[in-house]
Amino acid sequence: MSSASADFTKYLTTMAGRVDKALHRFLPAEKIAPQTIHKAMRYSVFAGGKRLRPILCIAAAEACGGDAERAMPAACAVEVLHTYSLVHDDLPCMDDDDLRRGRPTCHKVFGDGMAVLCGDALLTEAFYILAETQATPRYRSDVFIKELALTSGSRHLIGGQVMDLEGEGKSLNKAQLVLIHKAKTAALLTTSLRLGAMAVNATPAKLAALTTFGQALGLAFQIIDDILDVTQSTEVLGKTAGKDANVDKATYPAIVGLEKSRKEAAALTKKAMDALTVFGKKAGHLHQLADFLLARNY
Amino acid sequence: MSSASADFTKYLTTMAGRVDKALHRFLPAEKIAPQTIHKAMRYSVFAGGKRLRPILCIAAAEACGGDAERAMPAACAVEVLHTYSLVHDDLPCMDDDDLRRGRPTCHKVFGDGMAVLCGDALLTEAFYILAETQATPRYRSDVFIKELALTSGSRHLIGGQVMDLEGEGKSLNKAQLVLIHKAKTAALLTTSLRLGAMAVNATPAKLAALTTFGQALGLAFQIIDDILDVTQSTEVLGKTAGKDANVDKATYPAIVGLEKSRKEAAALTKKAMDALTVFGKKAGHLHQLADFLLARNY
What we know:
Helix content of chain A: 55-70%
Number of helices of chain A: 15
Strand content of chain A: under 5%
Largest interface: A-B, 51 and 50 residues
CATH topology of chain A: Farnesyl Diphosphate Synthase
CATH superfamily of chain A: Farnesyl Diphosphate Synthase
Distance between the termini of chain A: 18 Å
Structural class of chain A: mainly alpha
Oligomer: homodimer
Largest sheet of chain A: 2 strands, antiparallel
Number of strands of chain A: 2
CATH architecture of chain A: Orthogonal Bundle
Shape of chain A: globular
CATH class of chain A: Mainly Alpha
Strand order of the largest sheet of chain A: 1-2
Radius of gyration of chain A: 18 Å
Order of helices and strands of chain A: HHHHEEHHHHHHHHHHH
């Protein structure tokens, strides 16, 4: 391992640790009544996730020359929101998944009703946590709330899951699949970056650059997820492999082929990298995160 | 019908109409993609509800001497949030109800997965709409968001549903049932009032009086709901009557008896009324709302 990659691995570990610590502080304690829901929330949030979205949020704040700590509420909010979307997506009436991050999914442990409530509670908590963000001269509190609500609402994150549900068993074209991937993945990655930047009062120009970066990176990320689903084992993924193909769900490799999928992911990552020029050396961690996402095999 | 009660009936109708108009403006149009989710959201919100929570929100703003229009985003937010909680509560994995406000429930029309997503989208939208509230000298934007998130989160609204789910088939005592009713009903009614008052910059003393009013009224309201469930027909209620008893769910009449339930509801309403003294004549509509809730039989 090179010294640069050792440093980056250390950065990821350190940041994930700081995010976990903040999440422990923000989430209701297990002993608070009713305990079952607080256990379910913590079971789902502390399931060994990579904390990719919060780290993007913090790295964006750094790229804008700001204090990472100011981005921490937003970082935790996007992770809690992401977790809610996984808990609900895994439900039997949705994607019906038993395994997530190598462990039984929330509804397998706590039951379907409790998993619905756990997701609801995490979604609600995400807004509470986000409201802890200090307003800046350029961005008032309501701007943060609207950014997250719009991205995670019926037009984007939830809209993507709707298209996903409605697309099962149907033959989707590439444009339709890109639309789903943008809504389900790229939108929240982009918002993670934007919220981090807004928390440190980023200029509109820097916010625009992060938006381009996030949209390209997000699509690349999801294409790679599709590739891994068809090429890796359940053991390596920590979730059911080949799931998408099994339920006849459209994937990028199925539509454009594996090789072309890999090339498109690489081209998108290049596009993402180019958008970082405006930040100069301060975008070092964002560059490394993009590299990391393209090269990952788990 | 007396002239006062005719005036009040007109007030309710006028206000419900204004709230509906604002809801139409705030909610995404049905033609926005993906259309299914936006149809499901509007199907659930425009189902002939009484708009009790938004009207309480607006009446609280009036009682504090403020402009009702300033409370409109908060009024719509609490109604949208209330609707999400009904959509999820009606799911087969929760209370499993087929009928709501005289119409098939969301999951009966759109399917279970879509109903989960519809509830998620309404919950998310509630925070977007609430963020439209203008901050006041006393209350910043983040205070409104935290008020709603806390009330609707795992400690209160969702927590109440958790206790409800866990209590089914078990013998609850009166204290436990009161805890559920406070969490599931009184908390959101109280927050509806508080948000309306905060939107017009109410003094802390007035906010405290509304809190007392809301908590007493909310418990009275839920006791009456329990009474109606055992005394009225499905046709009159517009939802399945006797449902609670059928699934062996604890109700107020079952624990303390019908007559005592009625007396407690009346005593709580009296307590609520007393809390309104500080507002003088400006609390006229809040008084009438409390009267209306105690006397209702549908």
